[in-house]
Design a protein that fits this description.
Elements (H helix, E strand, L loop, with lengths): L18 E6 L22 E7 L3 E3 L2 E3 L8 E4 L5 E5 L2 E7 L3 E5 L1
Antiparallel strand pairs: 1-2, 1-7, 2-5, 3-4, 5-8, 6-7
Length: 104
């Protein structure tokens, strides 16, 4: 008889088509001068790290490969994509075309 161990497994995300999953980078919580900025007053982060990529979009019956890869650091539009919460972590699912730039 097999025994199972209770452990928290991390949910895997597999984006479809030309979508990518981005983990937003944390911003600092204090400004110059030591003022505290509450979460509700902060702007949505616009930089993040790609954690998953889709296979690419279909065009004329062919798959167009993705330019982004897991681990890339990117800049994306402030209000782009869909925000999701998986295993207590915040992620953004966004089309590759909505990513503005890679950060080197």
């Amino acid at each position: 008889m097999a025994t199972t161990t209770a452990s928290k497994t991390k949910t895997k995300v597999f984006p479809l088509a030309d979508r990518v999953v981005i983990k937003p980078l944390e911003e600092t919580e204090t400004m110059k001068g030591g003022l505290y900025i509450p979460d509700t007053a902060k702007e949505k982060p616009i930089q993040g790290e790609v954690v998953a990529v889709g296979p690419g979009r279909r065009e004329k019956g062919e798959t167009v490969p993705m330019e982004l890869k897991v681990g890339d650091r990117v800049i994306y539009g402030k209000y782009s994509g869909t925000q999701v919460d998986l295993d207590g972590e915040e992620y953004i699912i966004i089309k590759e075309a909505d990513v503005l730039a890679k950060v080197g």
